[in-house]
């Protein structure tokens, strides 16, 4: 994420704690349900959401997790997330950065990257994929990408393609609409020699 992207997000959250109308939009409600349905397992021990925003996706997913951690670069978003899901932990971080350690577990078994990858450049996306493969090899990873104009250097499709290329995990697209796509990445495959 660039400092300009961060300044833009901070400006959005200065006006409201729900800049994309996650709470009231039928489209967003349907998207959150689709993400929950895409999860490969019913229960998780430790979930991490990178780019958690105001916690509305966490509200849908956290009940299925023993512990839930969200990370975001915008303090106002984190304040809203703590209100939305008081049982979860939300920490500040500017991606790419060292990820917070899971609570009471050796690693995360679920990682959510919902509409965050296109905020990053290809090297940052590759770093996240490599870090997750190395540090959280048992995790299911679920990505969500906006398919329209992002206003960033990468489109959602380009960002997902970059993540697929960098990750050793098996991936499949589980839902594709005109507006978004959801991909699921399961534990890393062995690279051929």
From TrEMBL:
The record's Gene3D superfamilies line, in alphabetical order, gives: Vaccinia Virus protein VP39
Q: What is the scientific name of the source organism?
A: Fulvimarina endophytica
Query: Know the name of this protein?
Result: Methyltransferase domain-containing protein
Q: Which Gene Ontology molecular-function terms are recorded?
A: S-adenosylmethionine-dependent methyltransferase activity
Name the domain of life: Bacteria
List the Pfam families: NodS
Biological process per Gene Ontology, one example term: oligosaccharide biosynthetic process
What keywords is this UniProt entry annotated with?
Answer: Methyltransferase, Transferase
């Amino acid at each position: 994420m660039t400092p300009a992207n961060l300044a833009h997000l901070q400006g959005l959250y200065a006006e409201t704690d729900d800049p994309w109308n996650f709470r009231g939009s039928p489209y967003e409600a349907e998207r959150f349900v689709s993400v929950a349905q895409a999860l490969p397992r019913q229960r998780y021990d430790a979930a991490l959401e990178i780019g958690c925003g105001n916690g509305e996706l966490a509200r849908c997913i956290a009940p299925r997790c023993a512990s839930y951690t969200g990370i975001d670069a915008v303090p106002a978003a984190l304040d809203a997330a703590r209100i939305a899901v008081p049982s979860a932990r939300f920490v500040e971080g500017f991606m790419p950065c060292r990820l917070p350690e899971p609570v009471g577990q050796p690693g995360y078994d679920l990682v959510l990257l919902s509409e965050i990858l296109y905020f990053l450049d290809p090297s940052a996306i590759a770093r996240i994929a490599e870090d997750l493969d190395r540090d959280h090899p048992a995790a299911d990873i679920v990505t969500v990408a906006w398919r329209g104009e992002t206003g960033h250097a990468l489109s959602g499709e380009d960002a997902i393609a970059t993540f697929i290329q960098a990750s050793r995990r098996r991936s499949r697209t589980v839902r594709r609409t005109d507006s978004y796509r959801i991909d699921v990445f399961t534990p890393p495959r062995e690279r051929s020699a």
